[in-house]
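Repro:
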Amino acid sequence: MRTVVREYFRANLALFNLGPNAIRPEEAAYAMNELVRPASVIASHPNEAVTSGGVLQPNSRAKRFIDQVKGRPVYLAISGRTLEFDGSGKCVAGGCK
């Protein structure tokens, strides 16, 4: 991840699959914090109920991941919402906070 994604491609935006068979939240956060270091992260495919009424559920894997990612915003991939990012990986429309 460090060599290919960060150093070669210089990715500014990472889309991370948090499915239970993919990777644990702690490992995913380590990858974002130490290996890839994108400007922004989109958490996708959590395969669990992540939100209720638009509020992040406190006991979800997605919440554990978001709490451990440091120095960059993490956005949830939510059905029906289109996020837009600029070339530097900064969210510019569709649910940026």
